[in-house]
Description:
InterPro entries: Harbinger_derived_prot (IPR006912). By secondary structure, the protein is of the alpha/beta class. The chain has one domain (2-183). It has 6 helices and 7 strands. Strands 3-2-1-6-7 form a 5-stranded mixed beta sheet, sandwiched between helices. Strands 4-5 form a two-stranded antiparallel ribbon. It is globular, with a radius of gyration of 20 Å.
Amino acid sequence: MGEHRGFLGMIGCIDCMHWEWKNCPTAWKGQYSRGSAKPTIVLEAVASYDLWIWHAFFGLPGTLNDINVLDHSPVFDDIIQGQAPQVTFCFNENEYRLAYYLTDGIYPKWATFIQSITLPQGPKAALFAQHQEAVRKDVEQVFGVLQARFAIVKNPARFWDLDKIGKIMRACIILHNMIVEDERDGYGYTNVDISEFQ
């Protein structure tokens, strides 16, 4: 999947988005509010260059940062249980069997996370850092597209019930992926015989 973007063995990019919760119950506001004092709910997603969302984990309080969300997330359950998909790729004459994600600097230094180089020394390191940071933006682009497509996700959540809000997010992600799948290979107009319409 990552071959299209120059990263052999890459599964996708992982990051979190905060969705403002306008009608958060007063008793929970402290748990869901961060620096802006507005309560938010976190969506963790793994996305690819074609805007497909491969993994979504939603519902944790907005006070949690990406590492805390990752601790609760089921994204690595398959790897921990030894059920991860078999991936083999070669890079610099070394064979690797573990796929990886592109992340920003807050994530832990695990073998399955590839982060940018904070202070690149030399042109190769600078080029890698520039390319990694550009490709990592795929997941942020997905968040922007999700909010542009669905006004309910762009605007603050107005429901009281966290379960209902979770179902809304899940439905929006499913619809988003359906649209991406439909548009992935074009619109299918290439085989239309124009003479039929004359």
